[in-house]
Amino acid sequence: MSCIFCRIVDGDLPSRTVHETDQTLAFLDANPLAPGHTLVVPKEHYETVGDLPPEAAGPVFETVSAVTPRIERAVDADATTVAVNNGTAAGQEVPHTHVHVVPRFDGDDVGPIHRLFSARPSLSDAELDEIAAEIRG
Ligand code: AMP
Ligand code: ZN
Questions:
Q1: Is the CB of 128 under 6 A from ligand 1?
Q2: Which tens digits make up the pLDDT trace of 65-87?
Q3: CA 73, 74, 78 angle in degrees (round to 5)?
């Protein structure tokens, strides 16, 4: 099995696990963006958020919610950025879906995730209506 997060779940690769449930694992990122940077993964292999069935999606966010305040306390963070690189075009490198919980500090000058997008599209009301209708299906 080549997926590194599956190997961590199976105990074949080491991790600094901080929380475990029947369906999820949370462990420190090996190359942290900030002290306490943690990844939350479903134990089953799903590549993207959209691949998660409801019975896996719920527990992943329950674990995110459980560990986030503990991470903040552990490193005395003022906040956290909770984010998913969902798909390769979004920068996902490990094809086993995972939620990043990255501690943030007053004055860390990283900014909101909005800063990822330097230019915003100009969309008319009609285009916005059409997109919303398309998503509703
Ligand atoms: P992403 O770009 O969203 O796929 O992020 C993958 C993350 O996994 C990166 O932040 C890596 O530092 C982290 N990572 C890769 N290998 C390991 C590992 N063996 N243990 C913990 N974190 C890892
Ligand atoms: Zn996997």
A1: no
A2: 999 999 999 999 999 999 999 99
A3: 45
